[in-house]
Amino acid sequence: MKAAVVHQLGTIPSVEEFQDAQIQNDSEVLVRVLASSLKNLDKLRVSGAHYNSHAQLPVVAGIDGVGQLDDGSVVYATGLSGMFAEYARVPKDRVYPVPAGITAAQAAALPNAVLGAAAALRYRTSMIAGAVVLVNGATGFTGRLAVRAAKLYGASRVLVTGRNAEALEDLRTIGADVLLPLTLSDEEFQTMLAEEHQKNPIDIVLDYTWGHPVELLLKVLQGSSDHARRVEVVTIGQMAGTHISLASATLRSTAIDIRGSGYGSLSSAQIHETLRILFPQFCEEVSSGRLPLKLIEAPLDRLPELWTAPVPSSERIVFTMM
Predict the structure, then answer these.
(1) Is residue 312 reached through a cis peptide bond, with omega within 30 degrees of 0 on the bond before it?
(2) What are phi and psi for residue 190, nearest 5 degrees?
(3) Which residue, among 261, 262, 273, has the nearest Cα to 96 in the 3D structure?
(4) pLDDT, tens only, 163-216
(5) C-alpha angle with apex 93: 102 to 3, nearest 5 degrees?
(6) Residue 63 C-beta-side C-alpha neighbours within 13 Å
(7) Which residue, among 156, 149, 153, has the nearest Cα to 127 in the 3D structure?
(8) Which of 34, 75, 191, 201 fits 95 for a cystine, CB–CB 3.0-4.6 Å?
(9) Whole-angstrom Cα distance, residue 304 to residue 306?
(10) Interatomic CA distance for residues 27 and 42, integer angstroms
(11) Are 115 and 266 in contact (CB under 8 A)?
(12) In whole angstroms, what is the distance from residue 84 CA to residue 65 CA?
């Protein structure tokens, strides 16, 4: 079968003929892969920098994807073997139906973003209808989905931050109410945010930047006149840095609750529910046109060329196998 093969960690996988994927026991099933998206996690595992990097080489790259079972049904699954390939082994009890009306490429791009946005909102916050939600770093692929998730789950107001003016403006089409450009000076940004927070106090922050933008946010939230009001800050990404400077007084002076969301903070039951329930919800959002996805679809042969290609953060590369 054709596959993207890793021969040495830290190098780009090569697309070549490789041994066919074969199921090893009754708990596995073989899928004919239709599409698989390229994510940072895929690159980290191949680079050797991730704690779960490939241990045995050569190996096929690709964590997850959309494929077809023998009965013709189209499903999403995480591979027991690499999914940048024509065929892959997947757990029989962990295949999730892909609803009609969405393409394989669209479906392949969604799960990672659903876990990084909808699951974060549902399981790592006290989200209720009427909440005011700020999506920090909303112009990325997952951040865009977070904007839509906030509206879908009943947010009365969604504030968004980002550096790309065009991408920021485009968020209005999927539910953003207030745009806060990160290109403003620190003082201008904090003034603008403080005015919005005073008029409509922020309940939840979904953060994809960490670093300096979060330091600015916390200074504004700390300055709230309502000291009993709880604000939940959930960090999911670190586009602007891996560390922040956080004074003890910030946490003592207001009811700020800071936590993270990711594979390590979500239970296996929550991840299963995300893929069984939330994933189909967002397939419907895509198929209905309420959540347009920005995809770069390419045949698997182009993987070496696109592996390190500069791609806007709002777009996702998806490799098609057929």
Answers:
(1) no
(2) -65, -35
(3) 273
(4) 999 999 999 999 999 999 999 999 999 999 999 999 999 999 999 999 999 999
(5) 65
(6) 16
(7) 153
(8) 75
(9) 6
(10) 24
(11) yes
(12) 8
Which tokens belong to 81?
A: 């073997």
> 101-138, pLDDT tens digit by residue?
999 999 999 999 999 999 999 999 999 999 999 999 99
Tell me the CA distances in angstroms from 16 to 5, 12, 13, 80, 184, one per residue in order: 7, 13, 9, 20, 48
Please tell me whether the overall predicted TM-score, pTM, comes out greater than 0.85 for this model: yes
Decide: helix, strand or coil at residue 273: helix
Q: How far is CA 195 from the centre of its chain?
A: 30
Which residue(s) pair with 36 in the sheet? 319
Return the bridge partners of 76, or none: 66, 96
Check: CB of residue 152 under 8 Å from CB of residue 255. Answer: no
**Euclidean distance between CA atoms 160 and 146, whole angstroms:** 10
Residues contacting residue 277 through CB under 8 Å, at least 6 positions apart: none
CB 199: neighbour CB atoms within 10 A? 10
The 3-state DSSP class for residue 110 equals: helix
Q: Residue 59 has which token pair? A: 């190996």
Please report, for residues 25, 102, 273, the alpha-carbon distance to residue 315 in angstroms, rounded to integers and kept in the order given: 37, 17, 26
φ, ψ (nearest 5 deg) of residue 18? -135, 165
CA 97 to chain centre: 20
Give the C-alpha distances (Å, rounded to integers) separating 169 from 20, 174, 302. Answer: 46, 10, 32
Is the CB of residue 117 less than 8 Å from the CB of residue 145?
yes
Amino acid found at 76: Y
Phi, psi of 241 (to 5 degrees): 150, 160
* DSSP three-state, residue 106: helix
- Rounded Cα distance between 230 and 258, Å, is 11
Separation in Å, CA 19 to CA 37, 60, 81, 85, 254: 22, 10, 11, 10, 58
Provide the CB-side half-sphere exposure for 234 (13 A, CA): 27
